[in-house]
Design brief:
The chain is of the alpha/beta class. It is 42% helix and 18% strand. It contains 13 helices and eleven strands.
Amino acid sequence: MRLRYIVVMLLTACLLYSGCSRPADEGVLKIADQYGLAYAPLAVIKERSMLEDKSLEVEWVQLGNASAIREAMLAGDLDVGFMGIPPYLIGRDKGMEWQVFTGLTSAKLGLVSNLSSIGNIEDIEVHHRIVVPQPGSIQHMLLSMAAERTLGDAAIFDSQLVSMKHPDGLQVLRAKGDIQMHFTSPPYVNMALAEEGFRLVLDGEEAFGGPFTFIIGVASKSMVENGQGIEIMQETLTEAIEWMQRNPDEAVKLLSAYYDLSEEDTRDYLLGEQLRFGTEIEGMGAFESFMSEAGYLTGIEEK
């Protein structure tokens, strides 16, 4: 059975339950992000206590992938999560009552190889292993898009995927053992390409066919519709992005300490072309169409 169908089966479990929203009287807004500089505006909000300054009590959680965020929402342990578009679409497709309320980041994603023999996806052999955050992630879908366009089979690499958090994926790629490729985001893609002999096999925008939003914010449908802290969250995200733009030196200093990066590298990532922050959402329809046609979705209905 191809992995795309396994993905659908795994994500079906528990998704028919509607208990993704937490009781409003708990009074604490629980927010989850993931790893990497793509979540920098959230780090700014956290470190500068911007939500607390608006009288919101907040609990922050960092999770390894969108599946962990989904499970926490289903368990009632989380209000807001940030992830790629494809995991959101898969969850919604299987009955998850969540809704997008903002965009966050566009980023230069890349598939990096530690083998000189792999220059493009046509060079990938069946025994090669590819790290992604999880099946159904945006990295997985970008690889599948490129595979369909170039090789005529969207699922050709599905059985070769290995799920890991971005930091762990970088370490195993450096180890040059059983893992030959890592599809990742800044700063990990930049760190990998700084290694001697590592090379970019596939650019994310090349795979997609243009720009797209990398990270979106989601919450339960009821929370979005009722405005339970979401309006304040949207407003604060905009303020954080604007603060970063107005105060680049302060932003670099704050974020280099938060992510344990040098100020020089952080400045390159933030002020170069690696990352673009904004609340607009681009590429939702294209991802949905591809995933439906390729069998990763069974038929989305608006919830």
